[in-house]
User: Fold this.
Amino acid sequence: MITYRTGNDIDLDEMIELYVDSTLGERRPVGERERMGRMLEEANLVITAWDGTLMVGISRSVTDWVYCTYLSDLAVRSAYQGRGIGKQMIRLTRQAAPASSVILLAAPKAVDYYPKIGMKPHDSAWLLLPGEEPV
Assistant:
């Protein structure tokens, strides 16, 4: 049975290993332990999924609780994908901040997933990547 917890008091090495297993690690700085630690510490809404003592999923968000919740990471272990774990973590994220919009940027492999669970596309997202400045 999968259980869910809220809070960022989790083992960093377990989180990094989960990111790698889920393939999200391909787009996150998993080789930069200090940066990954800060990502975990500074997130103010973290929901994890557990199969006993094994962390099988994580959603990591930054939110103001009333207007927007940026769900920056959603990762589920490869062997556990397709069981509704990601959808449940999104549901719990929504429940934690019910007045805010949940916003995310889909990983390329997950682009087709989000419309299936009722999320709407938005065609005017813009990025400034680290090291870039407005011109």
About this structure: The chain has four helices and five strands. The radius of gyration is 15 Å. The helical segments are 12-22, 33-42, 85-96, 113-116.
